[in-house]
Every structure is written in C-alpha cells, then in structure tokens.
Amino acid sequence: MTHMVQRVLLSGGSGLIGTALTQELRSSSIAIVRLVRSEDGSPNDSIRWFPDRPLQPVLDAASLSGIEGCEAAVHLAGANLSSHRWTPQYKETILSSRTDSSRALVEILSRLKQPPKVLVSASATGIYGDRGDDILTEESAPGTGYLPDVCRAWESAPDAAKGLGIRVVHLRFGVVLAPNGGALQKLLPVFKGALGGQLGDGRQWMSWITLADVVGAIRFAIEHEALSGPFNSVAPNPVTNAEFTRALARAVRRPAPWIVPAFALNALFGQMAQDTLLASTRAVPARLEGEGFTFRDPLIDPALASIVR
C-alpha cells in the first residue's frame, strides 16, 4: 500500500542528496521542514538543532511545535568520508556525526504528540566491506573493519525509533553519481583533461547509483508502507573500477590510459583509500527490485552519458 505525504522533516538537507530531494519534493507540492545547524541565512522552513552538543537541548519547545504534523522524516546527516584524511580524530567525527545526530533525531521524534509514520535514514554499502567478487544482497552479512563498524552503528541508532511505532528504513547508498557533487564532480575535470585512469588493478567492484535514482528510492521508501529495514540503494548493474573508467572516458570522449598504483593511493589517502577507493563491493538492489522499484538509470554507459552531456 502506498501513502502520499504532505510534509517531510529533513536533516542533512544542505548536502548533495538533501538538496536534490528538497527540489523534488517541493516540485510535488510537499512541504519540507529542515533541521539545520546554523541560523545564518536559513530559510523560513528551517529549524536550528544541536545534535552534537550533549549539554544543550537538541530542540526547544517552540521549535518542536514547528515539526508537528510531519508525516515522514529523512535523515541524511553525517560528515563527508572523502573530505579529510582519516586521522584518529576524523574517524571519530565520521562515527559520531552519524550516531549522535541519529540519537538526537529519535529524541526529537519521541517528544512529538504525533510522530511521523516513517524514518528513512541514510546508510552505505560500506557495511559489507571489501568482499571481492561476492554478490552482496541485503541478506549478506556485514563485513569487518572500521567502515563496516561505522555503518552498523549508523543503522543501529535510528532503530530506536521503532519503539515509538515508527517504520524505519535504511537506504544503503553506493557511489552517488551527479555532475555537481560527490566523486564524479572531482573526476570530470581530470577525465576531460585526458588524465583519467583506473585505480589500482581496476578489478574492485563499484556499486553506483545516479542522484535521480537516489531521490526516487527515498520517495519510494517514504510512500510504500510495507517497507522497513535495509535496502541496497544501488543500480542493478555494478561495474569494476576498470569498467567505470572506460565508461567515463567514453562519456567525455577522451582517453583514460593511466593507472594510479594502489601504493600511491595508500600513501596519499591512507586508510580511506583502502576502505573506499580500493575496496571491492558488488552490492545489488535485491529488495528494491523485489518491491517493484524501477531504476531510471540501470546501466553505467547511458547514465554517465546523460550526466556529462
């Protein structure tokens, strides 16, 4: 059964996914209430919150009343994985920015007279870790190591909302492809300058999804009342890094003859390179497809051609 909502609470709305989701929902005349960290320049539909300040209230009573009536909540907050080298301090920031904000959001929802019916929370295919050629569905066990541990904690914290009678959906995103953000924004100038190339041996699998399909998956999770638990939010046709490199080279019509050795990536980026750039994660959207979700961009070549044109 589907349920069309009229008002959505959104955290992490200033990022790539949040911005696109806001535009999509507003185009459908769905109101957005954004939880923001800074009041500077915030629009009228934003409410300031303090998810990382344990000694300060997450939200005051007046702000709480502005959230009443939201039928769904979407939680996208979390520190960027690739914006900093993974020092011990930044690794703690990566974890705490996800778990603390999730707990803070559940606290807010617990104080509402009528909490939303569904909480859609971001997660990542990093939960599976480096798994070689294994095909990974939602039934696959989590991997081991730092990033899988972060993802497990990231999913565990919002699950507390189940005790409030809220349906909780975890969307495990792969690499999100968009021209104006994420990995592709950094890669396009390199490939357009004919300086692109594969990473390491290129055999590592990459689970990807276009921004349009990310937004579609979030709406699907909100509107379909039978959905709960984890969903791999990735295109149905993962590619190796070598295949992705060739596809992006074709899209920009430039050669990509280079190979960036694994040792160079490890030297430049440390653990982040090993856990993200070189890790092999061949996730497929078994549950999304089983529930009837239709991908706009299921294949890498037309997806990239559409993005870079």
Question: Any descriptors?
Answer:
Rossmann fold; single chain; two-stranded parallel ribbon; alpha/beta; 38% helix; 309 residues
Quickly give the CATH architecture of one domain: 3-Layer(aba) Sandwich
Shape: globular
Which residue ranges are poorly predicted, with pLDDT under 50 across at least 5 consecutive positions?
A: none
* Percentage of β-strand residues: 15-25%
Query: How are the strands of the largest sheet arranged?
Result: 3-2-1-4-5-7-12
CATH topology of one domain: Rossmann fold
Mean pLDDT: 92
Amino- and carboxy-terminal Cα gap: 38 Å
Proportion in helices = 25-40%
> How many runs of DSSP E, i.e. beta strands?
15
Q: List the secondary-structure elements in sequence, H or E.
A: EHEEHEHEEHEEHEEEHEEHEHHEHH
Q: Which structural category do the helix and sheet elements fall into?
A: alpha/beta
Overview of this protein structure:
- The protein is α/β, with parallel strands linked by helices.
- The chain has a domain at 7-176 and 209-235 and 282-295: NAD(P)-binding Rossmann-like Domain (Rossmann fold).
- Helix content is 38%, strand content 18%.
- The chain has helices at residues 16-27, 61-65, 88-110, 146-156, 182-192, 211-223, 241-252, 262-269, 271-277, 286-290, 300-308, and strands at residues 7-11, 31-36, 46-48, 72-75, 118-124, 135-136, 167-173, 175-177, 197-199, 205-206, 208-210, 229-233, 239-240, 258-260, 282-283.
- A seven-stranded parallel sheet has the order 3-2-1-4-5-7-12, sandwiched between helices.
- It starts with 6 loop residues before the first strand and ends with a helix.
- The model has no long low-confidence stretch (mean pLDDT 92).
